[in-house]
Specification:
The structure is a homodimer of 340-residue chains. The first copy, chain A, has 340 residues and is an alpha/beta fold. Chain A is built from twelve helices and twelve strands. The longest helix of chain A is centred in the middle third of the chain and has 16 residues. The structure holds a DNA duplex (30 and 30 nucleotides).
DNA sequence: AGAGGACCTCAAAGCGCTTTGGCTATTCAT
DNA sequence: ATGAATAGCCAAAGCGCTTTGAGGTCCTCT
């Protein structure tokens, strides 16, 4: 059933039927009802391809996904997707993933925009002065950044958690417990979230006249193995920390293993706090010693971003608003006072 | 630059230009070259929306993604996506994710097909007599199943690993080491992969006159916590196994924790083998006791499926072929002879 | 009574491509 | 030399929608 058939059936023009269905004002309410009824009864659905060609709108959101032998999409992405789906289903909102080689992201963005494949895009894992953000801003396609960039010189829409405050508060707690030597196992320092976290830790230490020695910081891709190695090298170094902050639960697994391998205990010898993105399949309370965490559901973030993207599609959200969520600090058994 | 402008510029009809670009035979080779040159020089790219409307082909592949409060997309999906991306980038092949409530999958499939949003779809986590497969078969859209269904009564295209053989071989190895009481911590038994794995274990045991007691089997969602609980209940039951087979590395984390909590050792008291889907962020060789695994890269599978889907789009693959990959058994320190 | 709005509706022109059916040379066999 | 076959190209008709520009009715006000 297409528009022509439907309008013939109703003895109306295609124009009127189209307008009735799309809520234009110049249609009599009676007519509109009649049309809506008939449409529903005959299961008429406008052909999206045709609509797309006519309007230039795709009704989908996009994500340019870097892949490649050297690139591992991180498991957080799946939680993000779950959240996105939570909102998007029920709104018939689809997501287009455009895989790309890491060094061709810009080309891919241009292609996606030129082809009008999607009406808005979502950007993840931003870096300072992220070129993608600049590009999208130039291209004029609506977008939202999950996380934040820095030093861009213009406003852009983002949704981030307060990484700095989270790690500040966590570090302050450790300091209050008497820890002066705090170690940080961070994610890739090229990404803004890691920068903010480090900044938070530094600020907390500075407030007590302490500093974060470079030798107590590691910035690595967030795998269990890297968590292990980083912990090993921290604890076996010449200035071993008595407390460790860790940027992910997965790295914390490695940290726990390292601490145990060295014959140390948590929290007796080493206190441990990690950031928890809230995975259903790995929970901090189930660690051998329940883990104190800074917690923020990445799934909830995904849902919120989908909501805002949808608002952009329908023209409801238009200014480049930034949104920052506070992060919970959840205390569990993995921290204790520093040995004196 | 659109087709009309390009053809005007070349003093050719749109027909000829279109045909030249799409490789139709009724174009002189000289003309074709001339057209191709001009197209490249002016950066002409056919408008996908227009092409879509005219041909009914979208040039994209689809995935109907169940979500909802009760649904956790599992972390394997991200690895699968990586693999898919490995192939798809470089082919300008995009993936459309259509989120759906779990109880409306069928509706969503129908919508996606009716809208011609995609030319082929990929189906994951199949169950026996999976209704999605029946539906897609009826709807006549090309598709590929990652995994297998059973008892469908018709052939369909799939790509699966040999779960039965993998777990058969793993169980046989344990038996050869003298284990008579083998436990199985499986995934959701509603899914075919879990059924095949259990079948493999049973067959191996049967070959030695042993059986897999129901009380030594657990079928649960694959989380660390469930791995822990299942292990606890197995080892504290009235017929504790001396060896455990585990359907995922994540559950194996929980198993290791349970075994340790009970004051038992690996492999002294309990031998452990798990299936490894090859995550970059969690490796069996880095477990406190390196884990023996059945290994199969889910990322490689993703890549292969993308390749076959692309073949379907271009009409190269047409018969409903099934493809089964063998699985490696990688022996590491987590298994030993049974205590006598 | 006639002008001016308000309110509805319509025909037709896009959107940019593919594909059908036909036309004109040229080549080939007879 | 003639008819058929073939190669190469074109005009125009879709694909199914949205949107523009143009009426046509009916009511109200002066």
């Amino acid at each position: 059933m297409n528009l022509k058939q439907l309008s013939d059936m109703l003895d109306l023009s295609q124009t009127t039927v189209s307008r009735a269905l799309n809520g234009y004002p110049e249609v009599n309410e009676d007519t509109r009802r009649r049309v809506a009824d008939a449409a529903k009864r005959h299961g008429y659905r406008p052909n999206p391809s045709a609509r797309r060609l006519a309007t230039g709108k795709a009704g989908m959101i996009g994500y340019v996904m870097p892949t490649g032998a050297a690139v591992d999409i991180d498991p957080h992405f799946v939680e993000f997707l779950s959240g996105l789906g939570d909102y998007a289903r029920g709104h018939e909102l689809d997501l287009v993933l455009s895989p790309t080689a890491a060094d061709e992201e810009e080309t891919t963005y241009r292609r996606v925009v030129a082809n009008k494949q999607v009406d808005a895009v979502y950007v993840s894992s931003p870096r300072p002065a992220d070129r993608r953000v600049t590009l999208l801003n130039q291209l004029g396609i609506p977008f939202i950044v999950h996380g934040r960039s820095e030093g861009l010189g213009f406003d852009y829409p983002f949704m981030d958690i307060d990484n700095e405050a989270a790690f500040h508060d966590a570090a302050r707690l450790l300091i209050q417990l008497g820890h002066a030597k705090v170690g940080l196992i961070n994610g890739d320092i090229g990404q803004t979230f890691a920068i903010f976290r480090e900044r938070g830790v530094r600020r907390a230490l500075a407030a007590s006249g302490l500093t974060l020695a470079a030798e107590r910081v590691r910035s690595v891709a967030m795998t269990e193995e890297n968590g292990f190695r980083a912990s090993m090298s921290l604890l076996q170094g010449n200035a071993p920390p008595t407390a460790i902050l860790c940027s992910s639960l997965i790295m914390a697994l490695g940290a726990v293993r390292a601490i145990r391998d060295l014959g140390l205990t948590i929290p007796g010898d080493v206190s441990l706090i990690a950031h928890d993105d809230v995975f259903p399949w790995l929970k901090p309370e189930n660690f051998s010693v329940p883990l104190t965490t800074t917690r923020s559901s990445i799934r909830a973030a995904g849902s919120r971003i989908a909501e805002r993207l949808a608002a952009k599609l329908s023209g409801l959200e238009t200014e480049p608003r930034g949104e920052v969520w506070p992060v919970d600090l959840v205390v569990r058994g993995s921290i204790a006072g520093a040995k004196t």
